[in-house]
Amino acid sequence: MRHSKLAVLALATTAAAVALTTASAGIAAAVPDPVSVTTTAFQVPFTGVIGDPFPFATVSLAASTGASPGPGVARLSATSMCPAFTPGANCTAYTSATTIRWLNLSTGATGTATVPSGSFGVPGKEPVVDVPTGSGHVTATVLGASSATIVPGLGYFFVP
Asked: Cα–Cα distance between 116 and 97 in angstroms, integer?
C-alpha cells in the first residue's frame, strides 16, 4: 500500500511538472522576442554619371531590415552622394534615382526596385523604398536609373 501511494505521488508530481513546463512554454511562445532593426551599408557603392550636382558621383546605399520594415521586407535607402574623384569631400544627402536588382539566395526570388531621387530630412522626399524580398540572404546590384554606370554597386544582407 505504501509503494502504491508513493507511485501515485510521484506520478502526480511528474504530471504537475509537465503541465507547468508546457504552460510556461506556451506563454513564452506567445510573446515574441523584439526584433531590432539592422542597417547594412552596401559593400560597394554605385558610381556613375549623375550630372547634378556632380558630373561623376558615388552613391552610397544601405538596407534596413527587422522590426521597422517588417519580416520579409528590406528598406533600401540612398544615404549619401559624393564626387567620384574626391571621395568624402563635398558630399550631399541628395541622390538621384537608382535601380536595384535583387536576388534572394535562400528562396530564389528576384526583382527590381528603384530608390527615388530625394533628400534626407525632407518629409515625403526621402530616398527610400520598401522591397518585399522575402526572408533570407539577399544580394543586390545597383545601377543608375537614367545615367551611365561606371561601377555598379553591390550589397549583401540578411532579411529576417
From this structure: 4
- Stretch (H or E) spanning 46: strand 46-49
CA distances to 16, 29, 67, 120, 137 from 39, rounded to whole Å, are 45, 27, 11, 16, 14
Answer whether 64's CB lies under 8 Å from 39's CB: yes
Distance CA 5, CA 93 (A): 77
Residue 21 φ then ψ, to 5° = -65, -45
Report residue 114: phi and psi, to 5°. Answer: -120, 125
The pLDDT value given to residue 146: 59
As a whole number of angstroms, the distance between CA 114 and CA 46 comes to 13
Q: Which amino acid is at 12?
A: A
Single out the residue of 105, 95, 108 nearest to residue 153, CA to CA. Answer: 95
d(CA 145, CA 114): 7
Write out pLDDT tens, residues 33-70.
446 889 999 999 988 887 766 788 888 899 999 887 88
Pairing of strands 153-159, 70-83: unpaired
| pTM of the predicted structure, to 2 decimals | 0.71
